[in-house]
C-alpha cells in the first residue's frame, strides 16, 4: 500500500484554462500534459526562441491566497539558481486563470527509475552516488535558508543530456524559510512554532512530523535516509 500525503489542499476558484497549442509569453508553445497532482498540472512546452523543450507547472487561482503554493516554489528557485542540483528558472507569471512557472526539463524521477529496475534494487555504487548528490542538493537548499519538508524519491530526478548523471531536487511548494537576515545581514534561525500542521508524505517524513512539531534541517535529512 502506498501512503499518500496527509495534506488537505486548497480549493481552486475555477479550473485553469489552458489548451494544447497555447503560447505563453509569446515564446513557449504548450505541447502536451506531462502529469497532474494535487496542486496543479505540468506541461511540456517548446521554447520557440532556442528550439528547446521545457516544463511548465500550472496552478489555478485559489479561493484563499494562503493555499497558493506555486509562489513559494518560484521564490525558492530564484534563491537556488547557483546550485547545480536545481533546474533553471526560465520565467514565471500569471494568466487570467492560473499562475505558471517554466523551468528546464528534467529526466526521470528517482522513484520511476527504481520501479523499472530488476527487483527494484540499485547497485551499491549507484546508491552511494545518488545519496551523496541528493544530500548535496538538500545542503544547497539549507544554505539559502529553507527546509524542503517533503523530501522523497519522487521529488528528485536525474538531469538530461550532458547533465544526465546529476541529481536534481524539485517541488518546493511545501518549503519553509527558517533563516532570515538580521539588521547586520547575518542569517538568524526562525523561532520554532509550538505546534504545526502536518506537512510531508507519511511514508518518508520524520518522527517530528508525525508529532506535529516544527521541521528543521535534520528532518529533511531523516527523510533522505
Account of the protein in words:
This is Protein kinase domain-containing protein. GO terms for molecular function: ATP binding; protein kinase activity. InterPro entries: CK1_Ser-Thr_kinase, Kinase-like_dom_sf, Prot_kinase_dom. By secondary structure, the chain is α+β, with helices and mostly antiparallel strands. The chain folds into two domains: 22-104, Phosphorylase Kinase, domain 1; 108-223, Transferase(Phosphotransferase) domain 1 (Transferase(Phosphotransferase), domain 1). Helices cover 22% and strands 26% of the residues. It has helices spanning 70-79, 110-116, 124-143, 207-210, 217-224; strands at 23-24, 28-37, 40-47, 52-60, 89-94, 98-104, 146-147, 156-158, 167-169, 176-177, 179-181, 187-189. Strands 1-2-3-4-6-5 form a six-stranded antiparallel beta sheet, covered by helices on one side. A two-stranded antiparallel ribbon has the order 7-10. A hairpin with a 2-residue loop joins strand 2 and strand 3. Helix 3 packs antiparallel against helix 5 (217-224). It is globular, with a radius of gyration of 18 Å. Mean pLDDT is 90; it is low at 1-8.
Amino acid at each position: 500500500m502506498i501512503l499518500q500525503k496527509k495534506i488537505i489542499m486548497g480549493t481552486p476558484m475555477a479550473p485553469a484554462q489552458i489548451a494544447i497549442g497555447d503560447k505563453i509569453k509569446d515564446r513557449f508553445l504548450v505541447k502536451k500534459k506531462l502529469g497532474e497532482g494535487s496542486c496543479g498540472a505540468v506541461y511540456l512546452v517548446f521554447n520557440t526562441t532556442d528550439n528547446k523543450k521545457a516544463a511548465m507547472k500550472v496552478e489555478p487561482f485559489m479561493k484563499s491566497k494562503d493555499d497558493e503554493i506555486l509562489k513559494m516554489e518560484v521564490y525558492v528557485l530564484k534563491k537556488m539558481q547557483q546550485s547545480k542540483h536545481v533546474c533553471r528558472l526560465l520565467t514565471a507569471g500569471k494568466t487570467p486563470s492560473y499562475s505558471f512557472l517554466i523551468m528546464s526539463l528534467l529526466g526521470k524521477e528517482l522513484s520511476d527509475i527504481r520501479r523499472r529496475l530488476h527487483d527494484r534494487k540499485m547497485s551499491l555504487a549507484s546508491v552511494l552516488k545518488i545519496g551523496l548528490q541528493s544530500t548535496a542538493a538538500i545542503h544547497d537548499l539549507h544554505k539559502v535558508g529553507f527546509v524542503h519538508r517533503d523530501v522523497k524519491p519522487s521529488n528528485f530526478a536525474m538531469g538530461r543530456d550532458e547533465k544526465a548523471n546529476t541529481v536534481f531536487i524539485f517541488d518546493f511548494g511545501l518549503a519553509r524559510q527558517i533563516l532570515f537576515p538580521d539588521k547586520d545581514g547575518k542569517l538568524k534561525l526562525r523561532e520554532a512554532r509550538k505546534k504545526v500542521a502536518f506537512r510531508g508524505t507519511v511514508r518518508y517524513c520524520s518522527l517530528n512530523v508525525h508529532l506535529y512539531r516544527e521541521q528543521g534541517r535534520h528532518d529533511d535529512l531523516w527523510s533522505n535516509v
